[in-house]
Amino acid sequence: MYNPNLIKAIAVSFLMVFLLVAPHSAASKTVTIKIATLAPEGSAWIQTFDDLNTAVKKNTNNGVRFKIYPGGVLGDEKDMRRKMHVGQIQGAVLTSAGLSGIFSEMDVFQIPFLFESYDEVDYVLEKMDAFFKKGFADKGYTLLGWSEGGFIRLMSTTPISSLGDLRKAKVWTWEDAPMAKAIFDAANISAIPLSLPDVLVGLQTGLVEVVYAPPSGAISLQWFTKTKFMTDVPLMYLIGGVVVKNNVFKKLSPAEQQTLLELCPKYMVELKLAIRKENLEAIKVMTKHGVKLVKPSKDQIEEFKKLAANAMQHQTGQSFSQKVRDEVIAHLTAFRNSKN
User: Fold this and answer.
1) Rounded distance, CA 296 to CA 302, Å?
2) What is the enclosing helix (H) or strand (E) of 265?
């Protein structure tokens, strides 16, 4: 028997279910941001990202999460940039070489002997943070936070204390780092280009005899097991950054965007402090395992610096601009003068 009141009650019930359940279902949908990195599993980088991922999921009610692809499983940084471009991944943790492939002004951080301390690095980054973030934004990326590898040193199978020593050895160069190539070309060194994952095999087979990395990186990548010497001169500061595609970031709600912009820098600061501590401890670990520290003379160090300065004169204007270089130097000078 037809009962209009019953039909009406059922219709109202369905409407209530729709209003209550549909928004909940939409809200429960999780956005997964796939991020690639060269950092190996078990490193401070991956541990930090695991902690960050937990915090992001908690603060977005599981609305956003990261999926990390560690250890270069998706290729070198050039491969990561290509995969971001075609949408296979949405973000990456890149070093200065990889970042400069997006925004070329980042090459200014690859100038050898530019920084003398972490305090200088932190000061310059604070002053120029907005400039670099805008540069990435204009290229279609959101910079979520700065990270770092630390100060790079030479690792070798034979002692390297001078340019003469370097010219006699089989020197590796990262194939995704044109700035390093420019320096080696200026030094008349025929460096051997290899992707980062291939370096350990290169050391094992004798294809290369000299590599360069921050101390903690040399341990994480196991390069120190195939080298006997470390040249105890900080050559260059290795900066890093976490970037995601703008089109992905803008799909997040304003609250979710704000969560990432607050949490990522916080955890990257914690990572930087951990990396700095690890680099100090790494030198002790390597020397304990038989790696000998090579200490060049003051004249030999000046020879390295003079060569690097000449090489950078040719690079200025080709990758980073004279304007950006001058601005970085001005901030450095101001900082150093404030300490005198």
Assistant:
1) 10
2) helix 254-288
What is the distance between the alpha carbons of residues 235 and 213, in angstroms, rounded to a whole number?
10
131-138 contacts at long range (C-beta below 8 A, 24 or more positions apart): 131/324, 131/327, 132/103, 132/105, 132/106, 135/103, 135/105, 135/106, 136/99, 136/102, 136/103, 136/243, 137/246, 138/103
Distance CA 94, CA 103 (A): 12
Q: Is 212 left (phi over 0), alpha (psi -120 to 50) or beta?
A: beta
The whole model's pTM is what?
0.85
CA angle 132, 95, 330 (to 5 degrees): 45
Instruction: Write the Ramachandran bin of 219: left for phi over 0, alpha for psi from -120 to 50, otherwise beta.
Output: alpha
The CA–CA distances, whole Å, from 258 to 129, 219, 244, 264, 265 equal: 17, 36, 14, 10, 11
The dihedral region occupied by 72, where left means phi > 0, alpha psi between -120 and 50, and beta the remainder, is left
* Strand 31-36, strand 91-95: pairing: parallel
Per residue in 11-47, is it b (16+ CB within 10 Å) or e — as a string?
eeeeeeeeeeeeeeeeeeeebebbbbbbbeeebbbbe
pLDDT by residue (tens digit) across 19-62? 333 343 344 488 999 999 999 898 889 999 999 999 999 999 99
Mutual angle of helices 178-186 and 298-315, in 10-degree steps: 120
Reduced DSSP (H G I as helix, E B as strand, rest coil) percent helix, strand, coil of the chain, to 5: 55, 20, 25
CA distances from 110 to 1, 107, 155, 248, 334 (A): 83, 5, 18, 29, 20
Residue 194: its H or E element:
strand 192-194
Q: What does the pLDDT read at residue 208? A: 97
For residue 155, give the nearest of 247, 248, 223 by alpha carbon: 223
C-alpha span between 271 and 261 (Å, rounded): 16
